[in-house]
Amino acid sequence: MYNEVNMTRRTLVGISLVAMLVMVLLLLVKEAAAPSAPKVTAPTKSAPRTTQPKATTFDKTQFSTTDPSSPWVVVNKQHPLSPIDYTPNDLMPVGNGQQMRAEAATALKTMFSDAQAGGYTLVADSGYRSYSTQVSTYNSEVKAYGQAKADSESARPGYSEHQTGWAVDIGADGCHVADCFGDLPAGQWVQANSYKYGFIWRYTSDNTDVTGYRAEAWHFRYIGAALAAEMHKEGITTLEQFFNISGGPNYN
Ligand SMILES: [Zn+2]
Predict the structure, then answer these.
(1) If both were cysteines, with which of 13, 128, 194, 247 could 240 make a disulfide (CB 3.0 to 4.6 Å apart)?
(2) How confident is the model at residue 252 (pLDDT cuts 50, 70, 90)?
(3) Cα 161 to Cα 165: distance, rounded to the nearest angstrom
(4) Pairwise CA distance, residues 224 & 132, whole Å
(5) What is the distance in A from the centroid of ligand 1 to the CA of 168?
(6) Is 216 a catalytic residue?
(7) How many domains does the chain have?
């Protein structure tokens, strides 16, 4: 008799426990099924939540566009380096006797090794060029072809991106600093993928009016992965257009 009562109690306790469990489960299911959206979409002015589509605009003031040591510096025929004989202080070798700023050199090496993995052997034909090197390059071009032609093909001293240490001429498969680079699978790979490594293909046939230079299939400029990705996303190919800075074919 006692055992029976005890058993009944146990059973009752068991049943109520099960009932409680079911209720808890039901509550949980209800909670899960209830649309949580109102919580997120509720207009709370004070606290912007984690999911904010397009809330962050690209900060265009993050780096200088005039300081020659900045990865965003704009150098063109309207905007020479300042000081005009600027020399970067962290040049690193990128092979073939060439040098670039450390950050750009690291990115270039990564790009070159990824290209190699895809079967493309790339080489840095020309990286950093000093002010004095540009003086002799430009002067010899003027001597050989006249100033008009020299200006269309070579920057005046103090006006070359190569002097910043952020620019590189890339070659492959017997094609060096020449239009054929754009016809090579290797060249086309670089033109299509360089933005992933923080570079832009700086002078294309479509942006000649803006840059002031004829298309250079081989010339790439390091600007950092964030800006390169943003420009790629926005479909903008020049720093001039992105930052609304003057450029063009005429010297200032
Ligand atoms: Zn170049």
Answers:
(1) 247
(2) confident
(3) 7
(4) 27
(5) 6
(6) yes
(7) 2
* Residue 221 is assigned to a structural domain of this protein: yes
Written as one string, the DSSP assignment of 140-206 is HHHHHH-HHHHHHHSPPTT--GGGGT-EEEEEETTB-SSGGGGTSHHHHHHHHHGGGGTEEE---TT
Q: What residues make up the domain containing 22?
A: 2-34
Q: Which helix (H) or strand (E) holds 42?
A: none
pLDDT at position 42 over 60: no
Residues 29 and 103 in one domain: no
As a whole number of angstroms, the distance between CA 198 and CA 104 comes to 8
Q: How far is the CA of 23 from the centre of ligand 1 (A)?
A: 73
pTM, two decimals, is: 0.77
Which residue out of 141, 161, 216, 230 is catalytically annotated? 216
Residue 130 lies in a domain: yes
The rounded distance, in Å, linking the Cα atoms of 106 and 104 is 5
Q: Within this chain, do residues 116 and 213 fall inside the same structural domain, yes or no? A: yes
* Assigned domain for 46 exists: no
Q: How far is the CA of 71 from the centre of ligand 1 (A)?
A: 16
Together in a domain, 118 and 225: yes
